[in-house]
Amino acid sequence: MCRQRNPRTLEGVSTSRIALYYKFVPLKDPEAVKLWQHTLCRELGLRGRIIISEHGINGTVGGPLKAVKQYVKQTRSYQPFRGMEIKWSDGGAEDFPRLSVKVRPELVAFGLDEVKVNDDGVIGGGEHLSPEQVHQLVEAKRAEGVEVTFFDGRNAMEAQIGRFKDAVVPETETTRDFVTELDSGKYDHLKDKPVVTYCTGGIRCEVLSALMKERGWQEVYQIDGGIVRYGETYGDSGYWEGELYVFDGRMNTRFSDQAKTIGECVSCAAPTSTFYNCLDRGCSTLQLYCTDCRHIPETTRCQACRKRLAENPQHPNSGALTRPRRRHQAAESVSV
Ligand SMILES: [Zn+2]
Ligand SMILES: [Zn+2]
Fold first, then answer.
1. Which residues pair with 276 in a beta bridge?
2. Nearest-ligand number for the alpha carbon of 294
3. Closest ligand relative to 283 C-alpha
4. How far apart (Å, rounded) are the C-alpha atoms in residues 194 and 172?
5. What SS3 state is found at 53?
6. Could you say which of 2, 41, 199, 268 is catalytic?
7. How far is the CA of 309 from the centre of ligand 2 (A)?
8. Per residue in 118-172, pLDDT tens?
9. Is 246 exposed, middle or buried (0-12, 13-18, 19+ CB in 10 A)?
10. Is residue 199 among the annotated active site residues?
11. What is the DSSP letter of 296?
12. What letter does residue 216 receive in the DSSP assignment?
């Protein structure tokens, strides 16, 4: 993937990397795994975010290539993590504010305790398809006169800058909203249709596809390795359109120079893929702005904050930041 940020030196590009990974596997003692992972990362000088739960591990870590390779080797040497797939991406420790290793009740916060995991992963999930198999499925179904529906497993905001063609994008602010969305009846017409769920790196679909099947969707597939792997295979010449929102300092990446810009500035509707934080202190609302509009304070305040400012100009959060900033930390602990 091409970088969207400051160009780095050639040396920087070749010697630093980000590793993204997850594995659903039962862990008896998540706290012990956390301590081990924290020590390991600190000793190797890595930064990033790692979530551990009784259901496995989900992490994104960056640092010098040698150190990240060492990290991967050591992590895979732990029996439950053996053979864990790693996605590599450009970047390094500087793409993360710090090292954070946490134990959480869920790897991805759906707000559920119904998810069951065994040594083979999430129980009852959708069938995994490689990017090539996704194309085979679409073509085979089309030959039968049936359209395959792509179902976005991310927060709706992420889909503003990139999504699969004609995808269904549920109205989700966080992953917790999926259960309400699925139970709302809005997507019941897809229950007997082939549905392919997708998310950034695949982890959210492991759970989402299981929830859908549990709730009566008959034919659910998930893209193995998510948009990241699909993009590596087909770039911008397949069913993907636009740019990919990522949960680290890069914020968005594109698969090729042919990537379309499908996002629109909230203020003037000019094409853009760049999210900016609301101008007000303490507000983490992200909105798309074009280069011109993002410097105008009146427009770079989100609607809720504009309303509050009008009602109570003295509110402590109404103080504007000195300059617009891009958010560098995810509001949610989803990394892949
Ligand atoms: Zn604009
Ligand atoms: Zn705001």
1. 287
2. 1
3. 2
4. 22
5. strand
6. 199
7. 10
8. 999 999 999 999 999 999 999 999 999 999 999 999 999 999 999 999 999 999 9
9. buried
10. yes
11. -
12. T
